[in-house]
Amino acid sequence: DQQVKQNSPSLSVQEGRISILNCDYTNSMFDYFLWYKKYPAEGPTFLISISSIKDKNEDGRFTVFLNKSAKHLSLHIVPSQPGDSAVYFCAASVSNTGKLIFGQGTTLQVKP
Amino acid sequence: DGGITQSPKYLFRKEGQNVTLSCEQNLNHDAMYWYRQDPGQGLRLIYYSQIVNDFQKGDIAEGYSVSREKKESFPLTVTSAQKNPTAFYLCASIARYAGGTEAFFGQGTRLTVV
User: Which candidate from A43, A51, A98 shows the least CB-CB separation from B99?
Assistant: First the structure.
């Protein structure tokens, strides 16, 4: 049972445009969501997070939106840069259980 | 320099052998996690530990074992019972603060069964 799903395995955008990465979840108990970026053969690095009490969090070029009623979150990267090309994972947690669940990842390619 | 260290980076195992992957952190984090990455499957949770001397099974714990005798260390043993152990293994430690949770990852260990 995949509790966190990233249904798009890949996304390609032009440099300077917006990248939108999507993530859906099924467990309404999730109360914290995170986005990670990963290069091949390296560990993921933290990008941005959002608590379930908020619907938007912004950090520079990265903005995460949370729609609790739809159990959906998205990561917007504006403007996209070639260095953003990587695999992006969303993750969700239920604070009092300590469990942190990841989606399958979306490979983003930003073309110059 | 605070961080989380996995060793070795590459590991080869013969079929039927047990092998142990090391994970050490000096971030003073209570919680540590082991994930496995396979192509197209993202990161799947093997085991996690929220405190010393305690750990819980994740979604794919069969064929794996862990220990948490020290806060800094969370080794993962891949036993001969794991039918498909070839994968990229990631260890993480978790910081909890008022705003939420953040996971810090090691650089990973690629295990290959030969």
Answer: A51
